[in-house]
Amino acid sequence: MHSVRSTAGHASSITLAAALSCATVWCVLYAVPSAPPAVSPRPYTPHPTPYTLIPPAPAASALPPVPQRDTEVTLAFGGDVMLGRLVNETIRERGPRHIWGNVLPLLRAADLALVNLECVVAKDGEPFMPRRAFYFRADPKSAEALTVAGIDYVSLANNHAMDFRAPGLLETVMQLDDLGIAHAGAGRDLEAASQHVVLEAEGLEVGVLSFADQLAEYSSGEGVPGTNVIVIDSVGPDLERVRSAISAVRSAGVDLVVFSIHWGPNMRQTPSPQFVGFAHAVMDAGADIFHGHSAHVFQGIEIYRGKAIFYDTGDLIDDYMVDPALRNDQQLLFVVKATAAGVQRVELVPLFIDRMQVSRARGADFRAIGERVARLSRPFGTTIRREGDRFVVEVRREK
After folding, report:
1. 3-class SS at 230?
2. What is the value of pTM for the model shown?
């Protein structure tokens, strides 16, 4: 199972430090009511975080093992996890395991599993105004689906984290803390929203930063709860913030750096040249894995100077209407094999979302997903081959 550096006695443990966030989406979804009736906001009582920014030095006997350069770990990256609306109802009726179908063993087998949490987790809340097209909120009980699947980390920098205003965001943070699930990209103020987390597996430490490129009105500030929002640009002050954040993670002594960002418009299969330039700048700044999400469909993969760029990882679970041309019900789980020396191999497991359940794709869906990811990755010079029940990218690093 998964392990994360412990700072407060959680089964999955976390160390927080400093970071930044970026991204967004507008959704194509089932025609269900866009927002629950507004309710009077409950007073929010700040919940003490179970994580320390600078943990006390452990006793010598408790020190984690020093990883060998060839110690390999498995990181599973999923796209958006939307637990609200019909998914929330399904969890109530059928339990938290049901939505994961036969993908559950894959998630639980990973040393670390990382996703974007595309909803608020709260008992209730007052919808953000002006009115949105969609509001996503899951019951606190539904968050058990994350622990059942062995999810170690969720990004909160996205365009739904503040759907139910500051109290909804802060309750989401509280619920995740209670479950021992690491998170980054949103918090009680800009300092909290900008912090990174450090995950640990087999003695290898993975630093994760979280960003979003919208919504501007959800941005955190000094004394203002919200998300970690930046402007996508390959030059300028926001890129300098990103570089500084990556440098801070590297200074913490981690072995790998994951840059997670919720960015760009919905239902786009290819990143813009501006996004490609930004991703390259992020990798040049010291990131090892680029974890993009927001489009609801997967995009191509690039191996850039021996590092993995997932421009968009699509969705992992949702209740969205299916576009007959873009086929957003056909998805991927991105499985990374890595050592302290970097990414060694990427495995792509085809998935299919149907009636609020994700399962492993078969037959025509499997073939269509493989053909599409190969086609979308070809412009980046990425070669993808089939290997049994998945597709594989071998990583060659520069000497």
Report:
1. coil
2. 0.86
